[in-house]
Amino acid sequence: MEQTWKILNPDAPEPVRERALNINRREFFSRSGTGVGVAALAGLLGRDVKGAESHSRLGFPGTGPSAKRVIYLFQNGAPTHCDLFDYKPRLHQLHGQPVPEEYLQGKRFSTMTGDPSGKLILQPIEPFRQYGQGGAWVSDLMPHTAAVADELCFVKSMHTDAVNHAPAISFLLSGAQIPGRPTLGAWLNYGLGSDAEDLPGFVVMTSVSKGTSCGQIFYDFYWGSGFLPTRYQGAKFRGSRDPVLYLKNPDGMDRSLRRGLLDDLAALNEIKFKDAGDPEIRTRIAQYEMAYRMQTSVPELTDLSDEPEHVLEMYGPQVREPGTFAYNCLLSRRLAERGVRYIQCMHAGWDQHNSLTTELYKQCEDTDQPSAALVRDLKMRGLLDDTLVIWGGEFGRTPFIQGNFDNRPRWGRDHHPYAFTTWLAGGGVKPGISWGASDDLGFNAVENPVHVHDLQATILHLLGIDHEKLTYRFQGRDFRLTDVHGHILKGVLA
């Protein structure tokens, strides 16, 4: 109803529209009866915008989406493009020499770097080789990713506005450095709804390598709904065999008793909704109903006994351990199979300020094989064509060293927003190519620069959405994920 009213009355003042929505909601509930019927109808409210992708106000008339769902393998802490995917022979040539001043003019770095003048160039810590028909350069640190290079599109000219972790992650996921805006998953959940009947449309999982000293905090606003109704926010699955709290019935309560309790709550909430007209009551009802359905769906989702042994081996030795990146990657595929629209799989520990020659190896060991396995697994099951997989962090790392050049065990790189690499796979993206380029030191994006808003616009486009049309009116302004920016990367589209 909200979506229909917005489409038919896009210019109506917000208070007028909200009043009309509340009247419609009251009428809807008052005519819907009580008991199980109310609970069932309430359960549908979380999917009341399902199918909106076909409407020309959100998408492009005459074209359908390439992707139906997104799996974002977000690498918190900023992987070092200089050591993983962006090979620059000149770094070897200038190793140990100061960065030429022309690369530093007008640049802002973190307070840990301060004045970058005199900083010494640091070559990649491991060799690069070319792979696949496209000749993609990949470090020896990522052998499994290298093996699927022909399935990947490396975007090597990413750049961002933020220089510190939380603002940069917020910017990439919500389009704003300051928390409070809806995140990408919330926008997709709002604009497209979900095909999952018994699971949330937006699921988040987090992990961190064991023993790392450079883990990042996972703030809830990384998967928040901002000013959208809260039913569109991400549902975080914990890293345990009981991923969702309070799904199990309390001692002494069986499923039929829980069903009756929910029916009574739905009736009480209906009365409250008639009085208040608060749309968050719809969220409350829908969440109760979803939790009831998840009592069955979540145990089935996390039961890996039906997975063939060769598939488990493909994801690596940690795949059976809940809370690891490998386990979360396999669960991401299982969620995608069950119709979840957006899966955000976040792994922390890439912030190697003084542990480039130690912890970077562990990060790659924990994430390389599962990431590649997910791409392979989706392709084997015929899901890669309509699943967009994204791998990348919030920015890159400096081509110059952080720390004492003579103390190799403590080498590091600082935050670098001016050039970094993200790779995409499936979902309507050209496979086996590299798009854009940084300069000869990996310092600045110079060929086909890709801003964060450009990536966001392209993601929405691949899901059939015009990023300029997916808006939500809040405090007198129409907001969108890309703010007033964003260009589609037509060169990466299959």
Explain this structure to me?
The chain has 494 residues and is α/β, with parallel strands linked by helices. It has one domain (52-247, 306-492): 3-Layer(aba) Sandwich (Alkaline Phosphatase, subunit A). Helices cover 33% and strands 15% of the residues. The chain has 14 helices and 17 strands. The protein has helices at 2-8, 14-30, 36-44, 81-84, 89-93, 143-147, 165-174, 184-192, 255-276, 280-302, 309-315, 325-337, 359-380, 452-462; strands at residues 69-76, 128-131, 136-139, 152-159, 202-208, 235-237, 342-348, 387-392, 396-397, 415-416, 420-425, 433-435, 437-438, 445-447, 450-451, 472-474, 477-479. A hairpin with a 2-residue loop joins strand 16 (472-474) and strand 17 (477-479). The longest helix has 23 residues, at 280-302. The two termini are 35 Å apart. Mean pLDDT is 87; it is low at 1-10 and 15-57.
Topology:
Blueprint lengths: L1 H7 L5 H17 L5 H9 L24 E8 L4 H4 L4 H5 L34 E4 L4 E4 L3 H5 L4 E8 L5 H10 L9 H9 L9 E7 L26 E3 L17 H22 L3 H23 L6 H7 L9 H13 L4 E7 L10 H22 L6 E6 L3 E2 L17 E2 L3 E6 L7 E3 L1 E2 L6 E3 L2 E2 H11 L9 E3 L2 E3 L15
Parallel strand pairs: 1-7, 1-8, 4-12, 4-15, 5-6, 5-7
Antiparallel strand pairs: 2-3, 4-11, 8-11, 9-10, 13-14, 16-17
